[in-house]
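PROTEIN DESIGN WORKSHEET
SECTION A - STRUCTURE
LENGTH: 261
TOKENS:
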């Protein structure tokens, strides 16, 4: 049984200033009237009261245990701030897929000379001109109408693209354009011309870097001079109405090569 001094010592250690017993305590001091007033209910506390050690007159303060103990984060070796999620996602993103390689274009071109003009003509079949080919006969008629020799001189072998069937050489459109332009420019250095005829879409595309919208027009090309753009011989035979446009443009250009002769 606790005496009054020991009881007060326990209460002081628990920082209890005002208290009211549930029953009459023996050897307790008389209660003060103001302490008998009703008070707001408080949460019950669970106390572990340790008995005093023998021979130690100083009372031991009881320890109060709360229902929930605060959690303390203890840093561990190797733990550090996590990197930003966006940075991790950026590194984890796969590289964009590479564009599929462009297949090499396929065409055959023949270079000819007629008077003061050079002609880069599409070979629709991929084979050199034969004397009885309808396309070659049409070309002779066009040269005759233009006032040029109707027996053009064939210069070199046909330019057939792609150059190689196998290998790792770049044979895409850009490489084909560089090759054709370099080939024609080399022939112009050997013998200049007054006008370069580009006959057929492959000749127009890879020598002048143009398309079918440029048909019947004259273009000024770097390193190649003036070039006259014409549809292919096969197209002129399939669509004879185009011959009128060829003849109309030809009459405006004939003075260029006739004045040389």
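SECTION B - SEQUENCE
RESIDUE ASSIGNMENT:
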């Amino acid at each position: 049984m606790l005496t009054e001094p020991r009881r007060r010592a326990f209460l002081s250690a628990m920082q209890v200033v005002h208290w009211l017993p549930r029953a009459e305590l023996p050897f307790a001091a008389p209660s003060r009237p103001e302490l008998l007033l009703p008070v707001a209910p408080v949460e019950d506390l669970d106390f572990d009261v340790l008995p005093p050690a023998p021979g130690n007159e100083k009372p031991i303060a009881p320890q109060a245990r709360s229902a929930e103990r605060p959690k303390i984060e203890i840093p561990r070796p190797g733990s550090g701030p996590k990197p930003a999620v966006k940075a991790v996602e950026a590194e984890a993103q796969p590289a964009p897929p590479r564009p599929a390689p462009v297949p090499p274009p396929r065409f055959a071109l023949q270079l000819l000379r007629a008077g003061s003009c050079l002609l880069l003509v599409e070979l629709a079949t991929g084979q050199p001109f034969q004397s009885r080919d309808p396309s070659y006969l049409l070309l002779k008629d066009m040269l005759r109408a233009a006032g040029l020799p109707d027996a053009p001189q064939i210069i070199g072998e046909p330019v057939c693209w792609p150059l190689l069937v196998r290998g790792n050489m770049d044979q895409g459109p850009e490489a084909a354009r560089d090759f054709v332009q370099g080939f024609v420019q080399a022939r112009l250095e050997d013998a200049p011309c007054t006008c370069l005829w580009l006959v057929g879409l492959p000749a127009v595309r890879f020598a002048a870097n143009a398309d079918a919208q440029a048909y019947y027009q004259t273009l000024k090309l770097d390193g190649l001079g003036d070039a006259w753009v014409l549809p292919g011989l096969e197209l002129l035979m399939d669509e004879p109405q185009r011959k009128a446009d060829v003849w109309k443009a030809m009459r405006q250009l004939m003075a260029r090569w006739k004045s040389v002769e």
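SECTION C - NOTES
The mean pLDDT is 81.
Residues 1-65 form one domain.
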